[in-house]
């Protein structure tokens, strides 16, 4: 008869027992995070609900999803708190809006990053939605903005929807970080199939596990960290505001740096040709006077692309955050509407 080994099961199988204890602890932690989720963890989880990994643009929106995105200040009040909903074609829509195309509609593609998408405000207050209210009733403005997009993602999304929603006009709102976003997007596109599959697996895991989102919650918390209250910089107001086209920034030609070869500029030029082949017009709005923006403005001018340099004052931005508030989005919509009318009248003349 074989004698039993001394000690309990833990002593006999320490690795197996340790793995079981670790798995149990992780399960308990997952349950705790689901029952009592800290705001940053819930934000990270909701972000995954509406976002997905993209092999070409690094990030994109997921179709037919809706999430509440909130990050709090150190004092507990929201830095921003808004709902992001997508339609079946994976672009931003108002909650419950039918995203299907009508035969009588004409389409304008509003493309860009989080400034176009309307980060920080509900869909009805985004600049594309406010622009639609200023145009003819049969013109439908598609909000194709996605946070994290550069020109590669923005133009690719429009191209992918052009057959179903053929654009008569596209407005690209260029922001200074688009150049960096396109460098990252180009690096993602160069990944091999195994690397893409690994990132897609991680993306899927983050959608189902709160615990898997903790590292990203910490990153988001640091990224959007703000003090206990706004110090008078920005406003959450929705009062009417206008940006006069006569006040568009007009830098001296000597102040425009020579544009360097860059994935962003290649994407813009290719998109211009794509639209021209469809008799569609492209307008580029270049945000701020940062060197990246001035370089983009010069590139567009040298390529014969209609481009305008503008900025939005602090009072029309979210406090301590920088994106356009509701009034800022309204002001940008008014500016774009006037530029579109001026361009149409000029072409007609």
Low-confidence stretches: 230-236
- The total of helices stands at 12
Largest sheet: 5 strands, parallel
CA-based gyration radius:
24 Å
Instruction: Give the helices and strands as they follow along the chain.
Output: HHHEEEEEEHHEHEHHHHEHEH
CATH architecture: 3-Layer(aba) Sandwich
Which CATH top level class fits?
Alpha Beta
Name of the CATH homologous superfamily: SGNH hydrolase
Helix content: 40-55%
Structural class: alpha/beta
How many structural domains does the protein architecture include? 1
Q: Any key phrases for this structure?
A:
12 helices, Rossmann fold, 349 residues, alpha/beta
Description:
The chain has 349 residues and is an alpha/beta fold. It has a single domain (33-97, 105-348), classed as Rossmann fold. It has helices at residues 9-12, 14-35, 39-50, 114-117, 127-132, 151-161, 178-189, 193-208, 214-223, 263-276, 291-302, 326-348; strands at residues 51-54, 58-61, 66-72, 78-86, 92-93, 106-112, 139-143, 167-174, 281-287, 306-310. A five-stranded parallel β-sheet has the order 7-6-8-9-10. It has a three-stranded antiparallel β-sheet with strand order 3-4-5. The radius of gyration is 24 Å and the shape is elongated.
């Amino acid at each position: 008869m074989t004698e039993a080994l001394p000690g309990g099961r833990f002593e006999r199988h320490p690795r197996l027992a340790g793995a079981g204890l670790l798995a149990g602890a992780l399960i308990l932690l997952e349950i705790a995070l689901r029952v009592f989720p800290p705001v940053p963890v819930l934000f990270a989880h909701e972000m995954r609900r509406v976002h997905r990994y993209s092999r070409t643009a690094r990030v994109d929106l997921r179709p037919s999803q809706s999430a509440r995105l909130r990050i709090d200040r150190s004092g507990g009040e929201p830095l921003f708190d808004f709902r992001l909903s997508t339609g079946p074609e994976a672009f931003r829509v108002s909650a419950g809006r039918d995203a299907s195309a009508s035969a009588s509609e004409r389409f304008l593609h509003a493309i860009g990053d989080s400034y176009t998408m309307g980060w920080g405000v509900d869909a009805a207050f985004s600049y594309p939605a406010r622009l639609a209210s200023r145009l003819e009733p049969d013109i439908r403005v598609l909000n194709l903005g996605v946070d994290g997009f550069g020109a590669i993602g923005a133009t690719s999304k429009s191209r992918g929807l052009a057959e179903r929603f053929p654009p008569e006009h596209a407005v690209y709102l260029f922001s200074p970080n688009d150049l960096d976003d396109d460098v990252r997007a180009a690096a993602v596109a160069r990944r091999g199939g195994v690397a893409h599959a690994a990132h897609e697996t991680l993306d899927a895991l983050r959608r189902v596990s709160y615990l898997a989102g903790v590292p990203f919650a910490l990153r988001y918390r640091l990224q959007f960290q703000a003090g206990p209250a706004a110090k008078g910089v920005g406003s959450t107001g929705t009062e009417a505001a206008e940006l006069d086209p006569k006040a568009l920034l007009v830098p001296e030609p000597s102040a425009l740096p020579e544009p360097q070869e860059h994935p962003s500029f290649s994407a813009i030029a290719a998109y211009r040709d794509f639209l021209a082949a469809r008799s569609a017009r492209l307008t580029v709005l270049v945000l701020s006077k940062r060197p990246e923006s001035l370089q983009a403005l010069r590139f567009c001018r040298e390529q014969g692309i209609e481009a305008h340099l503008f900025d939005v004052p602090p009072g029309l931005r979210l406090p301590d955050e920088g994106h356009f508030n509701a009034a800022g989005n309204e002001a940008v919509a008014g500016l774009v509407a006037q530029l579109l009318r001026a361009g149409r009248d000029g072409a007609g003349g």
